[in-house]
Write a structure and sequence with these properties.
Elements: H1 17-26, H2 31-40, H3 43-60, H4 62-69, E1 81-82, E2 88-89, H5 112-148, H6 150-165, H7 168-178, H8 184-194, H9 197-211, H10 215-222, H11 227-263, H12 275-282, H13 290-318, H14 320-323
Antiparallel strand pairs: 1-2
Helix pairs in contact: 2-13, 3-5, 3-13, 4-5, 5-6, 5-8, 5-9, 5-11, 6-9, 9-11, 10-11, 11-12, 11-13, 12-13
């Protein structure tokens, strides 16, 4: 008689320590903690944050920095330029010296370091304030259109289409040219913000349409919560991720728009400095004094690039579906 061996039950494999540790780390973390953990491992995010922080600190401390340099942005230094050579800066690299850390402007002799830091203050103030207007108005309009629907959605959607159909740059130039005795910084902020809100409103409207029939929103509605409470407690946190991601992508466009308007001569007026205005003035001297053109151009390029890289990373992490479209 032959005995048939009984097959042994498979022995479960021991969990891999690394996988177990990773699962333990991920467990108990919310989406914002996971987003921070992913962003922390991206070199581009670290570099972008350093550059953005540097320019923000420079803009906030512009009066202190120009005082440390020893010159105000409107102060002339005729001893730093050569009157016999058309006002060219004395010395190499546009007059860079211990007295003028980034050189001086041709003809006037104004300190470039003081004008660059004060230009950062003006450019970033306009860009960030206009971005805040765009985000607040666009988020409010998008949530209202997506949640309430019907006639409200139709009116707001047509208003978005109407605003986006305008040739915004041409309209901005016309408005800035007509307005004379007004605060140019306030006017530029309002004009730029006026044409920027429909883009983010459409993003928020789409997100709100996908959230309004979720189980927790229906439960809040059945539980007697009013529209305001539902929008602020349930819908708004759901659209916060895409809004934050797209906000950082809006900022470089606002900076570039301010620079373009100032470059075209309808933005900030002298003697108030801005990067776009400095680039426009430096075009006449790029042959004889290239540093006058390079310094504000590099500042503008680095700021726009840093915000763009930071926005791309935030969009990939906080709104992965939007980054694939």
């Amino acid at each position: 008689m032959t005995l048939t061996p009984v097959p042994k039950a498979p022995v479960p494999e021991a969990p891999v320590p690394e996988a177990k540790d990773a699962a333990a780390v991920l467990a108990g973390r919310g989406p914002w903690q996971l987003a921070r953990a992913q962003l922390r491992h991206r070199t581009s995010v670290k570099i972008s944050l350093v550059v953005v922080a540097l320019f923000l600190v420079m803009a906030a401390a512009a009066p202190l920095l120009s005082a440390l340099g020893g010159w105000s942005p409107e102060e002339f230094d005729k001893t730093a330029v050569d009157p016999y050579l058309g006002g060219q800066p004395l010395g190499a690299l546009g007059g860079i010296s211990a007295d003028h850390w980034l050189g001086v402007e041709p003809v006037t002799g104004r300190d470039l370091f003081a004008r660059v830091v004060h230009g950062a203050q003006v450019s970033l103030l306009i860009a960030l304030t206009a971005t805040a207007i765009v985000v607040i108005a666009g988020t409010a309009a998008g949530i209202a259109a997506g949640y309430f629907g019907g006639r409200i959605d139709a009116v707001l959607s047509r208003l978005m289409d109407l605003t986006m159909s305008f040739p915004s740059l041409i309209f901005m130039i016309a408005m800035m040219s007509v307005a004379k005795d007004v605060n140019r910084i306030l006017l530029m902020t309002a004009v730029i913000g006026l044409f920027g809100w429909p883009g983010i409103a459409r993003v928020v409207r789409g997100q709100t349409l996908s959230l309004k029939h979720r189980e927790y929103v229906d439960a809040a509605r059945v539980g007697g919560s009013g529209p305001w409470r539902i929008l602020t407690r349930d819908v708004l946190p759901g659209v916060a991720g895409p809004v934050i991601a797209y906000t950082t992508l809006i900022v470089p466009g606002m900076i570039a728009t301010e620079a373009a308007l100032s470059y075209l001569g309808v933005g900030v007026r002298p003697p108030t400095p801005s990067w776009g205005q400095m680039i426009a003035e430096s075009v006449a001297f790029y042959d004889t004094d290239p540093m006058y053109f390079v310094i504000p151009s590099v500042c503008l390029f680095l700021t726009v690039l840093a915000f763009t890289l930071l926005g791309d990373a935030l969009r990939d992490v906080l709104d992965p579906r939007g980054s694939r479209t």
